[in-house]
Amino acid sequence: MATSSQHLLDFEKPIVELEGKLDEMRALNRDDNLDLAAEIEALEERVDNLRTSIYRNLTRWQRVQIARHPQRPYTLDHIEALTEGFVELHGDRIHGDDRAIIGGLATFKGASYGYRDRTAMIIGHQKGRDTKERKFRRFGMPNPEGYRKALRLMKMAAKFNKPVITLLDTPGAYPGLEAEERGQAEAIARNLLEMARLPVPIVVVVVGEGASGGALGIGVGDRVLMLENAWYSVIAPESCSQILWRSWDYKEDAARALKLTAPDLVEVNVVDEIVPEPIGGAHRNPEATFDATGQAIAHALSTLDDLDPSTLKDERIAKLDRMGAFREESSEVHAEG
Amino acid sequence: MAWFRRKKAGIQTDRSEQNEVPEGQWVKCPETDEIVNRRELEDNLLVFPSSGYHFGMGSRRYFDFLFDDGAYDLHDTHLYSIDALHFEDRKPYAQRLEKAQEKTGQNEAVSAATGMMGTHRVSIAAMDFSFIGGSMGSVVGEIIARAVKRAYTEEIPLVIISQSGGARMMEGALSLMQMAKTSAHLSRLDDAGLPFFSVLTHPTTGGVTASFAMLGDINIAEPGALIGFAGPRVIRETIGSDLPEGFQRAEFLKDHGFVDLVVDRRRLRQRIVHLLDLIME
After folding, report:
1. pLDDT at B16
2. H-helix or E-strand containing B120?
3. One domain, residues A240 and A98
């Protein structure tokens, strides 16, 4: 239930108002010995119905807001719930240790999800919850070291024949001066190339925000899963609004135009499977979210179990090859000169 | 002095606009204010003769001077973008595409060709900034991927000439995926032991830099070209101060270890042929 300490999204206000009334009624029921059981039950049903109807009809922009909810489970929360014995590994061996991307070895608790327990390399963007932590994590916006650390860990996974699980949750790669000096573009590009030919399974889960190359930089995989209220696109709606509409005011239109939700992306085969979130969003019931995520990862890993490295790579590249929408009128080749 | 100038219509890319040769018979050098006859400039590969200033140049002109005797076979000229998302901002995407095709006479923002350079058969893809800012959507990604495939299928070297504002917003996540697709095929080329020369021209930013353009075995930049991931305006807003002189320019990238060579366009063909001779002996 929403309490005052929780972050409130604008479209959740009617729900919270009703919940307030419900609380009052419960208090009356308790304190004044009035029998309001029937009224309470009716109101509870109204709250449930309202929440369901709001959450069944979310706009794309509302989903973006849920994906950014400050109480939403972040990468480390997922790791804590889905794995045991996580050992975080640090540094890119070149420049430093980026805090916006974390990674390490852990036992994925697959047996709890109808698969088997197994060691995996888990890598993800990490955001912070309070002001201090947000700054420490650079708002989940990696510098080149983050991508290079991720690549080092993926190559380690290949060496030890362990699958890679990546969790995407970033508002974008950090657009800073030093990031450019140290080759942000090269770091992301290198990962795209190397991930395409990594000889071990890669399962990608978009858990929150999937903004552009900053997300894709750890997002090439054999199976791409996406939480129901996450978003993933070529650009954040605000930046798209600023560039195409020349104003920050069209973020809702931009979110609509970009078709950035999980259902949108399943339709164009960018995403393989939607991981369902509880009504009210992942932050309302993290346990149910972890459970659904664990199930989906376990299933994805099980489908990749029997593939040898070369088949794995062939299918991964073939999957990327199918991405795109165009029309080809003829394949004729004509000479000039 | 640009603060009073009205922003040009179209996609706003700040300093990263391409420097197209202006209309008219006489052309002024933006750096030295000298004047040259247009014909002379064109004969000089759109490089200002005295100052060496590089104007932006389209794909076909690159093919004309890179391939022996300007002879080459064009490929994939019949691939067309479709408006899969029914994207509409202030203008429908379908309309932008139509206008760009009319303006450029080309199907998309990249062209692919094969032909000879010296004694070497090569696959070349070259981008056109004049087509929706050289942005990469499904067709650009597909044509580049096919040019890479052509190289490793025929076992020939690859050259890609980049100029782009990045991934094309109007195709949403599909354009983002073109970064992965093009890079994936480059891994095949790499596995095959074949060389890839990435030529970065002004401007090359965003998703194109963060995919194939930075993945050359040898990265070559044209002098003064703006090359980066984030655009200068965004970085300025992030750090809250002005950017240092020469930031994100070709020479800056070379100093920081991200391009091998800064090569004057007039010597580009010769440098690539020489490197091909060395590698393919």
Report:
1. 55
2. strand B120-127
3. yes
Are residues A98 and A145 in contact, defined by beta-carbon separation less than 8 angstroms?
yes
- Do A152 and A295 share a structural domain? yes
pLDDT at B14: 43
Does A322 lie at the interface with B, CB-CB under 8 angstroms?
Answer: no
Mean pLDDT of chain B, nearest integer? 93
Chain A residues inside the 8 Å CB shell of B190: 193
- Domain ranges, residue B137: 57-279
What is residue A32's predicted lDDT score, i.e. its pLDDT? 73
CA distance A20 to chain B (A): 40
In this structure, what DSSP letter does residue A202 have? E
Are the Cβ atoms of B78 and A246 closer than 8 angstroms?
Answer: no
What pLDDT, on a 0 to 100 scale, did the predictor assign at position A5? 56
Q: Are residues A251 and A283 in the same domain?
A: yes
Domain count, chain A: 2
Q: Are residues A220 and A303 in the same domain?
A: yes
Same domain, A13 and A156: no
For position A274, which CATH number holds?
A: 3.90.226.10
Question: Which residue in A197, A213, A326 is closest to B210 by CB distance?
Answer: A213
Chain B's closest residue to A232, CA to CA, is B173
CB-nearest to B191 from A197, A219, A259 is A197
Question: How many structural domains compose chain B?
Answer: 1
In a domain, A278, yes or no: yes
Mean pLDDT in each 10-residue stretch from start to end of chain A (337 residues)? 65 92 88 82 93 94 97 98 98 98 98 98 97 97 98 98 98 97 98 98 98 98 98 96 94 97 97 97 97 98 97 98 93 46
- Cα–Cα distances in Å, from B112 out to A100, B33, B122, B147, B232? 38, 35, 11, 6, 30
By CA distance, what is B139's nearest residue in A?
Answer: A326
- The H or E element spanning position A326 is strand A326-328
Q: Is A328 on the interface with B (CB under 8 A)?
A: yes
Measured in angstroms, the CA of A244 and the nearest CA of chain B are apart by 6
Look up residue B134 and give its DSSP letter: G
Residue A114 burial (CB < 10 Å; 0-12/13-18/19+)?
exposed
Q: Would you give the DSSP letter of residue B3?
A: G
A329 contacts B78? CB cut-off 8 A:
yes
pLDDT for the residue numbered A178: 96
Nearest to B82 among A177, A320, A325 (CB): A325
Would you say residue A219 lies in a domain? Answer: yes
Chain B neighbors of A317, CB-CB under 8 A: 184-185, 187-188
CA angle A243, A244, A249 (to 5 degrees): 80
Domain, as residue range, for A181: 64-322
Any idea what the CATH number is for the domain that residue B70 is in? 3.90.226.10
Q: Does B34 reside within a domain? A: no
The answer to whether residue A334 is domain-embedded is no
Tracing tokens 């990696």 back to the chain, one arrives at A142
Q: In terms of domains, do A261 and A164 share one?
A: yes
**Closest CB from B12, B177, B229 relative to A185:** B229
**Is B141 a member of any domain?**
yes
A47 and A177 fall within a common domain: no
Contact between A248 and A242 (Cβ < 8 Å): yes
Chain A hits for B185, Cβ within 8 Å: 317
* CB proximity A65 to B under 8 Å: no
> Are the beta carbons of A245 and B258 separated by less than 8 Å?
no
CB–CB contact A193 B181 (8 Å)? no
Q: Best mutation site among B101, B176, B248 for testing chain A: the one with the most A CBs within 10 Å?
A: B176
Is B96 within a domain?
Answer: yes
Q: Are strands A273-275 and A231-233 parallel, antiparallel or unpaired?
A: unpaired
> Is B49 domain-assigned?
no
Token digits for B273? Answer: 């042929």
- A131 in a domain, yes or no? yes
